Every structure is written in structure tokens, then in C-alpha cells.
Amino acid sequence: MSDPSIPDNLRDQTLKLLASGGAVSRADLVETLQVAPSTVSAVVRRLLEEGTVLEEGVGRSTGGRRPRILRLREVEGVFAVSELGAQHARIGLCSPDGRLLATEEVAIDIAAGSGEVFDVVALAFARARTATAPGQALLGVGMALPGPVEFPRGRLVGPARMPGWSGVDAQVALAERFNVPVVVDNDAKAAAIGEYTVRGRDTGDMIYVKAGTGIGGCLVTGGQVYRGGRGLSGDVTHVRVADSGERHCSCGSRGCLETVASGAALAHQLEERGLPVTTTRDVIAAAVDAEPTVVTMVRHAGGLLGVALSGLVNFLNPDAVVIGGALSSLDVYVAAARGLLYERCLPSMTQSLSIEASIAGPDAALVGLGHLVRAAADVRPS
After folding, report:
1. pTM for the full model?
2. What's the CA gap between 357 and 226, in Å, rounded?
3. By CB neighbour count within 10 A (0-12 exposed, 13-18 middle, 19+ buried), where does 208 fall?
4. CATH number 1.10.10.10 given to 8-72
5. 288: Cβ–Cβ under 8 A, 6 or more apart, which residues?
6. Quick count: other Cβ atoms within 10 Å of Cβ 346?
7. Does CATH place domain 200-360 in 3.30.1330.30?
8. pLDDT tens digits for 110-123?
């Protein structure tokens, strides 16, 4: 049985170092991870018991006993992961050690319902496996959804932007369809896990915001996602903000952050002004082309995101605020959020605060899902 005192992120970091060649012995792990030798021994013992790693052979001595060499045991098979949006799904295949092997985007209509969307995703998985991993077994499936998800149950609860999906037990439906272990999570939480994984353990406590068609959020503390009582934490999109114009929100309320700072809100407001903009991608393209009205409105939206986040920063005192999602590709959006955070937060809270765009980019959720589904599948090499 695995030791529950060993954080999953330390296990993941160890596997990542062994997979990349960044470490080949216990001594290497101690030096790179900056943890006690006893902690490394506990992690290695857990991985040896699982059958995930092998310890064999000896390396070069640096003055003491020659170190035993650690290596990952090869496992055949792949994990299939997907992140759903309103109109597109991002599909990926992951190796058993969490590396992304292939990615693809396919068109979907989230309003068409879970059955039709899952059909499209299943076909995309099949194409990807045929092209990238022919003959390899499907070990598990992970899916990230743009709405509140009870975790680890995988059931949707009142998703405002997913008509007809409320109460859908996505985890059960996907497990019946694929007959493998399945993980279903909120898209922002999955992306936060991916972002934290890519950045490494030195990131510290992090608020991650996914700013795309909608807005989601997540706190990572101590290397773990904070999920709350039912796994529904992070619903920053429905925080009320000043200067919202009391616009109607998809949740039925007024003045929510989503109505002024999301890609959908920007597209709607620009369309009202007669601009040929109907999607978040149109907004981004127009901003990149430096269309003055679009740039001004994107800057205003980023500032309102900063206003909404300022209370969280003052309350939680994180080490980093990371903005991901499609709108994070716009420097003006991220810079405006950063400026308002510096303006609204206490100086003591921003003195060493990092505020920047995602470095994991559009694959953040897929990377996060790869780590989640690997743990759920508990793949043990033969």
C-alpha cells in the first residue's frame, strides 16, 4: 500500500525527472528536489512497490558507495484526454509517464448534449490512437468540462454555459463507453494542475485563472488543488464586480465577472457595436490586429479581472497569479489585470507576487488530466 504521507506532486516530480534523464539515482533526486534523503527513499520505495520504477546496476562513484541506477519500467498503452469548450474540444494522447504524445482540435457544439459530444470525442480518440499509437491499449480516459464538477465523482452541478448537462454523471457515462478508468474534472482545475506540473515545485501557492469564453479559477496550495467541500471551489466567474453595467449573466444573476471580462462577453459587446466579431477567437484576432476599439475593451476587461482577483490575493496571499485560457495570449489583457492587482492589493501582498501568463498554454488541461488519470488508473507495469 502506498504511503499517504507522500504528496502526489513529489511522486510526479520524481517520475518526471526519471523520464527526462534529469535524475538517475537517489542522490540525484535529493539534490534536484531539495528534500531529505529519507523522503526520497520513501518515494522510491513507493515506486518500487508499485512496479513503476526499477533499481538496477550501478553508476559512477563521487567519493562514496557507487549509486544504484533508477529507471522507469516501460508500459505499453496510452491515456486519452480531452478538454471541452463551447465550440471546440482539444484532444490528446498521453504516455503512461504523463508526456503528451499528440494533440488535435475538433469542432463540437456543447449545447448538443453529452451523448453527441461524447460521440465526437470518441471518434477523435480513435483517430489519434490509430495515427500515433496503433495497437496500444487504452489505459484510461480523462475529460475536463467548462462547468462545476463534483470531484472525484465526476458529476456536473448546474453548469450555466452547458445547457442540458446539469446532473449528467459524465464519469459513469464515459466509463461505460470506454470500459477503462475515467477521471472527469473542471477545466480550470485540470489546467491548474498542468500549469503547476510544468512550472515545478518552486512555484509555491498559485491562483490560476482560465480566461477564455468563460472564466474559471483554482487555488493550488502545497502542491495540491484546493477543492472545497463538494469539489466545487473556484467559481470566480460569478463574482460580482463594480462597473459591470449590471448585465444579465448566464447564471440568471446580474453583474458577474463573466459578463464583462470573458471572451463571450467581449464578443457580445463588440458585436453590439457593429464590429464583425462573434467568437472569442474573433476578439483575439482583432486585438492582435490592433483594432482600437477592441484593444480598449480588452484592456478594460483585463482590468476588471484584476479587480475581482484583488480580494482573493489579499485574502490568500499566494506566491503567484497565473492567467491561462485563450485571452492570456493577449498581452494587453494580462498587463491590465496585473496593473489593477498592483493598484488594489496591499503592498505586502504584491511585494514578491508573480503575475504572468500561462507557460503551459493551450495544453495545460491535457497535461493535468494526464496526471490525474494516471493516478486513477493506477497502472502497474507487468
Report:
1. 0.81
2. 21
3. buried
4. yes
5. 330
6. 11
7. no
8. 999 999 999 999 99
